[in-house]
């Protein structure tokens, strides 16, 4: 009896509340319900095209012999290589025949990659190519009529636009969060080399990487990539690679197997209000040209020019200029607007191909090893964005050489050879002069990107 009385009282209270809602608010609630239904419809459709990516790495393990004494004495039994699940991330199907976009860091170091769809189907995935400098990777699975997402236009995103983020945070498959675009063109975060991030307050957590950011039309506008967090979880600052950038990289990887970036041989820096005042300018943002290299002299650009526009779009800072130039195919012409001596000028400039090694005075000191090297100097370190201030920068590795066999590649820095630090070209020449055919050469190699580095030991054998 008491239970029925409680139900009647609650029902009466609900009726009273509904009776107090005026018609205008009832319309507002109906509109919000439709808005909610729109979110649900988009999430339901997009979920089908978001996949879980399982990164597997083969590791060595020892199997027990079954005899504790022998296990203790010999450290275990037979040595075997076994697959072990290494990590879980997300990816997005972008073509019905099985191309998938994800982040480079999701599949980095993987020996095997497995993809699982929303309906439970699993595929082994082939790595088509990867671009660590933008953190974009392309996979391919052998499938037909897969639920591919439609790509949108990330250049049309505006601050305040609603977006949904779909992925697999903490292994929780197909989690959907929503929020707004908090900023666009976000850079200078030291996450990757080329940064043009979409920032959102939609919750992005570990495992979301490589997943989809979509607009209210269900169109793919970004790849969820990173978070800025002190706790390791979402704190309202999520970052995504714009789909226009990711699509350009994907197309190049599929068609050419590599990414070629546009480049102008100029050194630029942010135009700050203090610099603007010192130079007597009327603008407070742009990219100030500090130096013009020999390969850019014919473009008409000059030191002290302030770049304020590229192809009729404003340029706010140096990082934005370099990132947008990098997205332009080498050989294409662009319009660059500069302020020179207080006057706005527009220049037609042909974009070159990025090659950080061009212009270095390469010296081949040991043909037998197959290496071309350049002494690392602070100036070269700044040019490459390297932390290493000394060593021998490898500018070329000849095919089928001892260096190639040892895994060395262009851009590596030789720090030591046979325990001798390589602080000058003389150090390098002195050590190599002592080598004879058949000698083994031990090198400590530093491999860097602009943000990270790792040291490893390489052994080369001088051919007889």
What is the compact description of this entry?
This protein has 464 residues and is an alpha+beta fold. The chain has helices at residues 2-20, 23-47, 68-74, 104-107, 243-256, 273-279, 318-326, 378-384, 402-405, 425-433; strands at residues 50-62, 79-93, 99-102, 112-116, 122-124, 126-131, 136-140, 162-167, 175-186, 197-200, 212-214, 220-227, 238-242, 262-263, 266-270, 287-292, 306-310, 313-314, 333-340, 343-350, 352-353, 363-366, 371-375, 392-397, 413-417, 420-421, 440-448, 453-461. Helices cover 23% and strands 36% of the residues.
Please give a structural write-up.
- This protein has helices at residues 2-20, 23-47, 68-74, 104-107, 243-256, 273-279, 318-326, 378-384, 402-405, 425-433, and strands at residues 50-62, 79-93, 99-102, 112-116, 122-124, 126-131, 136-140, 162-167, 175-186, 197-200, 212-214, 220-227, 238-242, 262-263, 266-270, 287-292, 306-310, 313-314, 333-340, 343-350, 352-353, 363-366, 371-375, 392-397, 413-417, 420-421, 440-448, 453-461.
- The strands form five sheets. Strands 5-4-1-2-3-7-6 form a seven-stranded antiparallel sheet. Strands 22, 23, 24, 25, 26, 27 and 28 form a seven-stranded antiparallel sheet that branches.
- The termini are far apart.
- It is of the alpha+beta class and 464 residues long.
- 33% of the residues are buried.
- The chain folds into four domains: 50-64 and 71-140, Trypsin-like serine proteases (Thrombin, subunit H, Beta Barrel); 154-256, Thrombin, subunit H, CATH 2.40.10; 262-353, Roll (Pdz3 Domain), CATH 2.30.42; 363-461, PDZ domain (Pdz3 Domain, Roll).
- Helices cover 23% and strands 36% of the residues.
- Mean pLDDT is 81; it is low at 10-15, 69-79 and 360-365.
């Amino acid at each position: 009896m008491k239970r029925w009385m409680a139900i009647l009282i609650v029902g009466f209270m609900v009726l009273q509340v509904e009776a107090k809602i005026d018609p205008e608010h009832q319309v507002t609630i109906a509109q919000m319900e439709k808005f909610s239904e729109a979110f649900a419809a988009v999430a339901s459709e997009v979920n089908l095209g978001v996949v879980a990516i399982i990164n597997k790495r083969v590791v060595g393990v020892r199997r027990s012999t079954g005899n504790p004494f022998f296990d203790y004495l010999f450290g275990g039994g037979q040595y075997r290589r076994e697959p072990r699940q290494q990590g879980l991330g997300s990816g997005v199907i972008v073509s019905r025949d099985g191309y998938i976009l994800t982040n480079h860091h999701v599949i980095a170091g993987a020996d095997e990659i497995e993809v699982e769809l929303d309906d439970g189907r699993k595929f082994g995935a082939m790595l088509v190519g990867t671009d660590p400098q933008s953190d974009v990777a392309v996979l391919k699975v052998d499938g037909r009529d897969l639920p591919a997402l439609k790509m949108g236009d990330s250049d049309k995103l505006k601050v305040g636009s609603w977006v949904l983020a779909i992925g697999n945070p903490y292994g929780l498959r197909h989690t959907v969060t929503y929020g707004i675009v908090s900023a666009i063109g976000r850079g200078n975060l030291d996450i990757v080399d080329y940064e043009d991030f979409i920032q959102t307050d939609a919750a992005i957590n570990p495992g979301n990487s490589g997943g989809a950011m979509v607009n209210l039309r269900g169109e793919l506008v970004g790849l969820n990539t990173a978070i800025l967090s002190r706790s390791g979880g979402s704190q309202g600052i999520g970052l995504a690679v714009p789909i226009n950038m990711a699509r350009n990289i994907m197309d190049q990887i599929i068609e050419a197997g590599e990414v070629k970036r546009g480049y102008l041989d100029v050194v630029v820096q942010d135009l700050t209000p203090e610099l603007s005042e010192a130079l007597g300018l009327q603008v407070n943002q742009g990219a100030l040209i500090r130096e013009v290299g020999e390969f850019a002299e014919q473009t008409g650009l000059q030191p002290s020019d302030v770049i304020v526009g590229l192809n009729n779009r404003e340029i706010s800072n140096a990082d934005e200029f370099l990132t947008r130039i990098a997205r332009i195919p080498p050989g294409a012409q662009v319009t660059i607007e500069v302020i020179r001596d207080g006057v706005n000028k527009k220049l037609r400039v042909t974009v070159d191909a990025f090659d950080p090694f061009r212009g270095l005075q390469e010296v081949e000191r040991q043909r037998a090893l197959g290496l071309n090297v350049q002494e690392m100097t602070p100036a070269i370190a700044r040019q490459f964005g390297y932390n290493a201030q000394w060593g021998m920068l490898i500018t070329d590795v000849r095919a089928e050489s001892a260096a190639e066999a040892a895994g060395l590649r262009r851009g590596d820095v030789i720090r030591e050879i046979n325990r001798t630090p390589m602080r000058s070209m003389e150090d390098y020449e002195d050590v190599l002069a002592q080598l004879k055919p058949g000698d083994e050469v031990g090198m400590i190699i530093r491999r860097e990107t602009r943000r990270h580095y790792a040291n490893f030991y390489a052994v080369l054998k001088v051919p007889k």
